[in-house]
Structure formats: C-alpha cells, structure tokens
Design goal:
There is one protein chain. The chain has three helices and no strands. With 99 residues, the chain is mainly α. The protein has two domains: 18-51; 56-97.
Amino acid sequence: MATEQPRTRPGTTSRLDPEEIEQFLRRYGDLIDDHVAEIVEEVVAARMAGHRPHRRLPLLVVVLAATGVCMPLLASPVTIAAIWVCAAVICGCLAYGQR
C-alpha cells in the first residue's frame, strides 16, 4: 500500500513552516479581520432591513383599551366620544411616528 502525498505546486514544500504562518498572519491578519467584519455588518444590515417591527400592535392595544374603558360607561355618550377622540389622536401619533 502506497501512502498518498498531498498535491503541491512544483517548487513548494508539503509542510507549512510555522514561521511563514506567523509572518502571513502578522502581515494580513488585520486586513482579513477587517474584511470579515465588513461582510458580517453587511449581512446583518441586510437581514435587519427585511425585518419590520409589529407596526399594528400598538394601534391594536389602544383600540382594545378604548373599547374596554367604554364598556362600563355606556350611559355617558359624551365620555365615550371623548375616549374615542383621544384614542384616534393616540393612533394618529403612533402611525405618524413609525414612518
């Protein structure tokens, strides 16, 4: 059984010299690290651009809260109207602020 040696280019050695590795890392390590960091930042930014927070959730909470507050006050239409006007203002502010 013959042992298979790794293929190398003519004129190169099959083993890596530790001093050459250290020299390579000293020379190009920071450059490689910077490029990897840029790539990671681009990937994270691309993923975050596609992610939209729940925009309707705060509006839904305001409407549900206004409905809950109005239930016990059914005998007072002026109070109910005031609550819904306030809820509309809050929803408008939330919708405008999320743009």
